[in-house]
Design brief:
It is built from 12 helices and 15 strands. By secondary structure, the chain is α/β, with parallel strands linked by helices. The protein folds into 2 domains: 203 residues, DHBP synthase; 89 residues, Rossmann fold (3-Layer(aba) Sandwich), CATH 3.40.50. Strands 1-8-2-3-7-4-6-5-9-10-11 form an 11-stranded mixed beta sheet, sandwiched between helices. A hairpin with a 2-residue loop joins strand 9 and strand 10. Helix 1 crosses helix 6. The protein is globular, with a radius of gyration of 19 Å. The structure holds adenosine monophosphate and magnesium ion. Adenosine monophosphate binds next to strand 6, strand 9 and strand 10. The site of adenosine monophosphate has 22 residues, from strand 6, strand 9 and strand 10.
Amino acid sequence: MTIISKDISKAVKLLTAEELVAIPTETVYGLAGNIYSTKAIKTIFETKQRPFFNPLIVHIPSIDYLSNIVEYIPEKAKLLAEAFWPGPITLVLKKKNIIPDIITAGKDTVAVRVPNHPVTLELLKKLPFPLAAPSANPFSSISPTTAKHVEDYFKDKIKMVLDGGPCRSGIESTIVGFEDDNPIIYRLGSTPIEVIETVIGEIEIKNRKEAAPDAPGMLGRHYAPKTTTVLTKNVSDAIKQYPNRLIGLLVFNSEVETNAVFTQIILSKKGDMVEAASKLYDALHQLDLQNLDIIIAEEFPDYGLGKSINDRLKRATKR
Ligand code: AMP
Ligand code: MG
């Protein structure tokens, strides 16, 4: 049986014994294991049914730890780490040999970040090794933002969920790689591009197809409910296209006046994208449990976190 607990020393014991523990971060819950334990890392891939070509993010306790695992830190990577760590930005950097190939899918780079959650920071400081921690969900499904989501997914497959409450940011980290020292966004996420640009100037986003070999998390269907989902700029028009169907609506800030839908979730009544992002996955989980025929999701304004939310919603529509 999975134990949901706040006991950090219990998590230390399990991780030291090469077991997995689901951990809270500010983005989503991660399924964590010792990066140097082949047994633990293999179990992460098996438990998630994640393909081995999809590399894992390494979680470290502080900026100072970075030089233990990477060969070289470009100037702009240093600026980003100083500005945003602990926080939801992941840097892809040239790895040291000490990082096992299974973590990086054989690449010579490693993805790394310092998560901004007090419980997990304390855990990382107590461990003599970093943690690999992909999202604690089966491959392609909606990421977990509460301990209960994790428990529902894995039941008795994992021994412990370290409970740190609901995740504050609610969508995954922004991933930044470097090509000839130039920063490139591999995955949109909780740190908006505009905010990154205030620190290092203009930054390019790799389009999905191009980025796929570099960042497999960019592959089409991902973060997806089981229920068919459509994304639209005009919710009222979309509703008309599905007469006599059980519809669930997911909207940004204002309720849609209609009798044609079974249920609707408003992500932020005050129109705050930070609040909307933090509630996004839980809303998708709730809608997915209601045996709807279709989920109609409203497209967000295409800037700041809205861009990242739209990215996740687009992938939720892929079959
Ligand atoms: P997740 O931990 O599920 O949020 O996914 C981690 C994502 O990080 C992967 O799907 C990749 O897109 C990206 N990633 C991890 N390691 C690398 C790497 N060495 N190079 C490029 N992208 C990476
Ligand atoms: Mg994931």
